[in-house]
Amino acid sequence: LRLLPRQRYLQAQRAEVGALERKRNVLCCLITRILKVEKQLHIDNLVFRVTDACQKGELGPGLRFLSFCCHSVDVLSCVLRLLHQGYVRRQEGRPHVLEY
């Protein structure tokens, strides 16, 4: 019987998955927080505001977190997820405007 060394790459992959999930959760929170205040917003403006908040590390008034790099693709992916879950919807006749 031969024992193999512990596979460290599996632990690294789990840590990366956890970090990506936390990032997705922060982005979804930012999106819903911004849309709750604005009620409706053009998707381009929403992407800009979320990426700006990520760079500054702000969730909103008085709420801060560690800033991280996020790209428009990350934000759009979270928007699609929130659309699918029903938290966000598109305005009728104007699909580029999102409502909370």
Automatic annotation (TrEMBL):
Q: Which residues form the Cullin neddylation domain?
A: 19-96
Note the InterPro entries from the entry. Answer: Cullin, Cullin_neddylation_domain, WH-like_DNA-bd_sf, WH_DNA-bd_sf
Q: Would you tell me the protein name for this molecule?
A: CUL9 protein
What's the gene? Answer: Cul9_2
